[in-house]
Amino acid sequence: MGHGRMEPVHYVFSARGNEKDFPSIPHQFTMDNNTDTNDTFEATTAIELLLPASQEIRYLMAFTYLILSIIGVIPNIILAVTLIRIGTMPKQKVFVLLAEQILISDFCQLSSQLIVAFPLSLFGKNIYEGTPAIWVYNVINFLDTVGYNGVLDFTFLMAVNRLTVFLMPGVHHFLFDPDHIKRTIIFVWSFLLMQITVEYCMRCHKQFTYDEFYFYFLCVDPSALYVVIWLGTMRYQSYSFPIIMFVTYIVLFCYIKMKLQNTGGGKPKNSSQRQRKYEINLVLQAVIISFFLELQTLSFTVLPMIGTGNNRFYSSLGQNVISIMNNSSNPYVYFFFNSQIRAGMVALVQCQSPKQKAQAAVTTISTVKG
């Protein structure tokens, strides 16, 4: 779905407040012997494009967003509580800190689905407009922007972390050493908040269209050169980060394959080799996390091409569903690939101590691998 940065979807530039500019539907179209068939087709297509969503479509959109968002929020809450209860995991400290930033960003975006997308889609109007609760609408839209930028930037940072740990140890030490990682995280948060602040200073504000079912940016003065340049730069960044991540992981997999061939791919014989295997496991987790971001970016490009009429609603539905999947995937990735976090999550659900179970999982792994 359209989000905070100039990502590759819906950007509506208008000076008409909160209203999206749609051409009016012709009240009447008559056909006589002199009417060109192409004119008939074009007029019919225009009418199809502008037909409002039926009540069935509105219910489909609203309750799909609601159900999927709840399915996403619950495991994210379990993951968040698990990470808090487990506390510090020395071998995964940096990876977990980055995962926590993505988790915060996921919550921001999922909240926009529950608090904005669902009710506006269901009722077909902005239920917050003209009420004291309008600040809720504005704050949640802002958080949706923060969430999108946070997922993009910290997923990219996670890719940099995996690349540098194998190929650039000096850079890795500077950015991701346990004594430096908090500085890096603060810098990224400051950077993305600066970007969002600039967008708002340009009077580009996040909105949700309850007629077309997507988030978009409404810019008051889109013709200003500085607006065009800045938002174009943000659009380029939104496209380029996923591509860079894809190339990064291809390079990493080639490097890892070569290293395993050189070592015979045998069983780890010392602590250094065990640590290398452990790092490879973290690479796999990061790859899967970035895959959903890649899928989301691809959906922004491909799905709007579906067509007109009711198909445009399914395009919005597909983009939002993929976006929700992206915000919901992390708990499942960690559950299946990270034994410590999995043990902690299971213990939490069973009302046991996540920290003890996670420590026991580490002890078991060390015993087996030793």
Write a structural description.
The chain is mainly α and 370 residues long. It has one domain (11-20, 55-345): Rhopdopsin 7-helix transmembrane proteins. The chain is 71% helix and 4% strand. Strands 1-3-2 form a three-stranded mixed beta sheet. Strand 2 and strand 3 (214-219) form a beta hairpin. Helix 4 (134-167) runs parallel beside helix 7 and helix 8 packs antiparallel against helix 10 (330-337). It starts with 10 loop residues before the first strand and ends with a helix. Mean pLDDT is 78; it is low at 1-35, 37-48 and 363-370.
- Describe the global form: globular
How would you classify the helix and strand content by structural class? mainly alpha
Average pLDDT number: 78
Task: Write down the secondary-structure element order.
Answer: EHHHHHHEEHHHHHH
CATH class: Mainly Alpha
**How many separate helices?**
12
CATH superfamily: Rhodopsin 7-helix transmembrane proteins
Major β-sheet, in short? 3 strands, mixed
| Total strand segments | 3
Number of domains: 1
Approximately what portion of the residues adopt beta-strand conformation?
under 5%
CATH topology term? Rhopdopsin 7-helix transmembrane proteins
In short:
This is G_PROTEIN_RECEP_F1_2 domain-containing protein. Keywords: Membrane, Transmembrane, Transmembrane helix. This protein has twelve helices and three strands, in the order βααααααββαααααα.
